[in-house]
Amino acid sequence: PVPWAPKELSPPPAERNGWITFGSFNNTAKYHAEVFALWARVLNAVPGSRLILKWRTFNDAALKAVVREVFQGQGIAAERIELRGPSFHKEVLQQYADIDIALDPFPFTGGLTSCEALWMGVPVITWPQSRVVSRQTHALLHQIGLPECSVKDPDAFVRLAGDLAADPARLHELRQGLRARMQGSTLMDAVGFTRGLEHALIALYRQIDSG
Q1: Which residues contact 205 (CB under 8 A, 6 or more apart)?
Q2: Could you give the CA distance from residue 83 to residue 78 in angstroms, rounded to a whole number?
Q3: pTM above 0.70, yes or no
């Protein structure tokens, strides 16, 4: 973790707001009509919920208008969508305090973005597919013992979002426990990773040398 990451985690924002806030801080290049359609289903399934999207391109008024129009076409009022532009990395991490549940795009899922969300205590729901770029968050969730947040189809994605939104105790538990899960996983075992890489390189060298 970077030294400017918040050391203390605030409770899930639903506890103070009275509504669930979904979010994604991924690159807008990962967004397309099918992603927004699925996320609109989530918002429709959780009455009163809101969605925060953050990326540097959201300082473009035309882009913001297009995104809001897409969601309005799915029955989501403009005031339920908040689009945030660029900020320093410290502020990006701090703004996870405004998110209850992160939604992962597809087929190009989050990588570092998902790591940061999890480090800030925000569970990420992902729908992995066949390619490596579609399975980054899936792999992270399995490493920290949270495979249930990786779903098999869009219906399961919507269902899990609704289940988590309806379980404030679970969200609070995850908020306080995800960082420890990461610290205890192979994701943050630098020595173990290095040893594994060394063994793999030695095995590859021997294979080449013998062939």
Answers
A1: none
A2: 10
A3: yes
